[in-house]
Automatic annotation (TrEMBL):
The lineage of its organism: Eukaryota, Metazoa, Spiralia, Lophotrochozoa, Mollusca. It comes from the Eukaryota. PANTHER family: EG:BACR7A4.14 PROTEIN-RELATED (PTHR43975:SF2), ZGC:101858 (PTHR43975). This is Uncharacterized protein.
Amino acid sequence: MASLQDKVTIITGASSGIGESTALLFAESKAKVVLAARNVENLEKVASLCKTKGLSDSDVLVIQCDVTSEDNLKTLVDETVKKFGRIDVLINNAGKGTPGNVMVTPEATLDDIMNVNFKSIYNLSRLCVPHLIKTQ
């Protein structure tokens, strides 16, 4: 496997769970991590944990981001490129699920799930691909 050292990596849903664990694995590999999620307080905790793995302040970027907002996604990409000059890796991890069944779940709930779990991946990938192509 190729080295992740110094690879600029955007991770959505980085404030907990799989996103947090992914951020810590990339931090152990000395990648530069861009942590994105809605909960800034949790993102700051993850950023601190990344620094215990050997990253410096300059290796970590925390960005509050609602992945259903195209403006937020554009800001995420722009701020990443502004700080690091490139994007090497994109981890589209943000996701959600809502318990219930099809008989009682409102269509608005389905729309929200689809916007987070599908449309945001399309939108962020579309914004990142030109940068990812440059770093192949």
